[in-house]
Amino acid sequence: MQKNNAMPDQLNLFERVRYSIFPGTLQRPEYRERYRSFFNSLILHFRPHSVQQRTLRFTLTWGLGGMAVVLVFMLFATGLMLKFVYQPVPDRAYESIIHLQNNVHFGQLIRGIHHWSANILLIIVFLHFLRVFFSGAFYPPRQFNWIIGLAMFLSVLVSNITGYLLPWDQLAFWAITICTGMLEYVPGMGDWLQGLVRGGSDIGPATLSIFFAIHTAIIPACLLVLMPWHFWRVRNAGGLVIPRRPDEDLSSVDEKVPTIPNLILREIVVAVVLIAVVMVIAVLFNAPLETKANPGLSPNPTKAPWYFVGIQELLLHFHPLFALFIIPVVMLIALVSIPYLNYQTETAGVWFTSPKGRSMAVVAALVAIIVTPIGIVADEFIIDLAAWMPNIPGEISNGLIPFALMLTATFLFYKAMKKKFSSNNNEALQSVFVLLVVAFIVLTITGIWFRGLNMKLSLPGYY
Amino acid sequence: MPTKTKEKKSETEPTRRSFLNILWIALGGVTLAEFIAVAFAFLRPPRSKAIREKAETIVTAGAAERFRPNSVTAFVRGKFYLARLEDGGFLALSRTCTHLGCSVPWVEKEMKFACPCHGSAFDITGDVIDAPAPRALDIYPIAIENKILKVDIRKPIKRSSFRVDQVTYPKRKV
Question: CA A157 → CA A122, A268, A287, A305, B47, distances in Å?
């Protein structure tokens, strides 16, 4: 044994330093192999030893969970760098961004990567949420992991909205003004909640401090707890949901392959491609920066950040109490309850629960794509419930009544789909989910591209 | 053996140990509640009194006759508009839209406040002409001392719509 080790005095300085850091490389090849397996087992603290071969298929996960992790770490890295330059005080914030972009080496690029990673992360997380739902990865034992996922989704949303204010330009200031203005309509505690979030009655230095603290400390801390918990629950459930055909029984399936290299290599490829894409986007498109915030001058139109524009669009059609509070709360409760409902069958791993479920989902999506724009246009030009019922308070005429109509229509849709396709409740509930998600996407698209001056309906580019 | 009898006991009736355990948990719960309460109190906006003492609370607008009837004057520092109605009465209107908090400019040509964000419009008394704003613009109290108008900007007064008793009139010349 001893004689296999080269004597330290036979080595030059460079080699001695190198071997002091990596003593394993001093050994013969078979010992190097041992070191290699040591590093591998380091990886295996985070990943299982072996995984089901079928779960490696790209079309099961589309790499979305892994992409979210990569983006979160890119955000941590670039966020830490930005923290060295950014100054969270109203008089300095905008100037520090200008300084970052004009004087700091790679400042513009780092800000761009942070900006685009954050926006892409929201989309990726949303797609991941859809993937998990449609591949039935929320049945026991994965029920609670769905809830952890929703909590992370909310964390990412809060992180985006708090980060939106930090550049302190016109876009940021007024978007956050109207977003925090929405809080006023929460019944009973609206003013208190708004004061808590703004740190006073107006958006000012206190708001910036609060948003900066949430953005750079609270949310990263939450994610650092929730993410490992999420992954640990995936492992607890025996890995990812195994994709299968509807009639297939998985109890006998056992095609395990070692994680290294099968899973790790795939993950690295997805990460590398994603990083390259984000870099290209960040180089081609600068993160937006308008003129410095001016509390006396509201731009026309003023829109919330794009991910809240769907809710802002609801606000144009419903009384604020319903658009900003009751509808979002009902939707959140519905999302949380998804894994806890009583289902007639257990379809974990089957895409869209069945071929019938797939065609029902397509029908639901088409219905939403046709009905939602008709509803928006009709409400803009024809329907005016508040004026038709002048003696009734707005909460009822423009709130409770249309909300009750929507709920009834959704329920009738559920019944009709169930009857027409003679389906079980998994498939029918899935079609309701598709209906609501697509309707929300249509609302968001309308808000982003089809709302012009004074938030009137208009074609993109025509205002 | 004696430990076994203890365990058996604890299943049916409270022992000293189970009582102490519950006490510890309860104390832990109280401590946690205290920490949460302190955190919330810490995050609450500071008492507005302390802020008010520092900030300007009364804006002196000037002599009443300086303002023409049927006109609106902006006070950027106080974030309000002084509106003089046709009959000579004064209203101090907040510039914050009651819909979502944008700043509302006065459009002289059309004699209305038009919110650029979502199309709400208010007349010279602050009443809503066009939705989505749910209520009239907030007002501030006006005091007239020696024919000089003073506006108290400490706290805006919410109102659903315009009423005549919200207007402040200068003393008429006898």
Answer: 7, 26, 18, 10, 30
Say which of A201, A206, A298 has its CB closest to residue B102.
Answer: A298
Measured between beta carbons, which residues in chain A are less than 8 angstroms from residue B99?
181
Residues of B in contact with A386 (CB under 8 A): 131
Report DSSP letters for B28-77, one per residue: HHHHHHHHHHHHHHHHSPPPHHHHHHHS--EEEEEEGGGSPTTEEEEETT
**Strand pairing report for B139-140 and B80-84:** unpaired
Contact B44 A200 (CB under 8 A): no
Counting every residue, how long is chain A? Answer: 463
Q: pLDDT tens digits for A309-322?
A: 898 888 888 888 88
Angle CA(A341)–CA(A342)–CA(A345) in degrees, nearest 5? Answer: 120
Q: Which helix (H) or strand (E) holds B16?
A: helix B16-43
Alpha carbon distance A304, A456 (integer Å): 15
Which residue in chain B is spatially nearest to A174 when comparing CA positions?
A: B102
Query: How does the average pLDDT of chain A come out, rounded?
Result: 88
Does residue A296 contact residue A430 with C-beta atoms inside 8 Å?
A: no
Q: Name B118's Cβ contacts closer than 8 Å, sequence gap at least 6.
A: A301, A302, A316, A454, A455, B97, B99, B100, B102, B132
Separation CA B30–CA B50 (nearest Å): 31
- pLDDT tens digits along A223-264: 999 999 999 999 888 888 888 888 887 777 778 888 888 899
Burial status of residue A458 (CB atoms within 10 A of its CB: 0-12, 13-18, 19 or more)? middle
User: How far is CA B110 from each of CA A30, A161, A301, B115, B139, rounded to the nearest angstrom?
Assistant: 88, 36, 19, 13, 21
Q: What is the DSSP string of A13-57?
A: HHHHHHHHH-GGGGS-HHHHHHHHHHHHHHHTTTS-SEEEGGGG-
d(CA A208, CA A93): 9
Q: Half-sphere exposure (CA, 13 Å, Cβ side) for A201?
A: 10
Specify the higher pLDDT residue, B48 or B170.
Answer: B170
Please give the residue of chain A at the shortest CA–CA distance from B121.
A454
Task: Give tens-digit pLDDT for A110-137.
Answer: 999 999 999 999 999 999 999 999 999 9
Q: What is the ipTM of this complex?
A: 0.75
Cβ burial B75-86 (10 Å sphere, 16+ → b, else e):
beebbbbbbbbe
To the nearest 10°, report the CA torsion of A324, A302, B159, B86: -160
Of B78, B84, B80, whose CA–CA distance to B66 is shortest? B84
Is A454 close to B76, i.e. CB distance below 8 A?
no
Residue A324 amino acid letter: L
Determine what percent of chain A is predicted with pLDDT higher than 70.
95
Residues of B in contact with A180 (CB under 8 A): 101
Contact: B100, A178; criterion CB under 8 Å: yes
The two tokens of residue A312 are 């802002």
